[in-house]
Design brief:
Layout lengths: L10 E6 L2 E7 L14 H8 L8 E4 L1 E3 L2 H14 L9 E3 L15 E4 L8 H4 L2 H8 L36
Length: 168
């Protein structure tokens, strides 16, 4: 680390929401505001977490949409294959964003407790809200300053002449 704390490598024990993620090298994405040096006697108080993050349990399958179900039933009838209830679900393969790659050991997949016709009925939203905390991160930006107004693009009184274009 240079004396201005702009460049270099720092290794630290990474704790996220009360869960230990192990020793991590903060070399590529290091910024001075991202870390803080803590005295050994303050470490226990700083890392103490009253409610550690639980495991993130996601379903291992999801319900297929109704139209696709209907088409599958018709295809089974046409091919003389019996339609089974397992055909109403598809396996869910997780693709974890690299930003949350460190949480991979805590993400589990299991059979859903309640099955429905939509994945929104099966997944507990509290699981995802626990990742963000009490509120979702939202940034509101004002693109236009002032009250909303409507400006018509074309007026019925405009005399618009269309020139015919001929291809040569």
């Amino acid at each position: 680390m240079d004396r201005w704390l702009f460049g270099g490598k720092v290794w630290g024990e990474w704790t996220y929401r009360g869960r230990n993620l192990g020793v991590y090298e903060f070399a590529n994405d290091l910024n001075r505001s991202d870390w803080r040096l803590i005295h050994k006697h303050e470490e226990k108080e700083f890392t103490d977490c009253k409610e550690p993050m639980g495991d993130i349990t996601l379903p291992n399958s999801f319900p297929i949409p109704p139209l696709q179900n209907l088409m599958t039933k018709k295809a089974c009838e046409k091919a003389d294959i019996p339609f089974r209830e397992e055909m109403k679900r598809a396996p869910l393969k997780l693709c974890i964003d690299p930003e949350f790659d460190m949480l991979t050991p805590f993400i589990k997949q299991a059979e859903p407790e309640k099955k429905g016709t939509s994945i929104y009925e099966e997944v507990d939203p509290k699981v995802f809200l626990d990742l963000y905390g009490e509120e979702l991160p939202v940034k509101v930006e004002a693109w236009n300053v002032g009250p909303a107004s409507f400006t018509p693009r074309f007026s019925p009184t405009d005399d618009v002449k269309v020139n015919q274009q001929l291809s040569s």
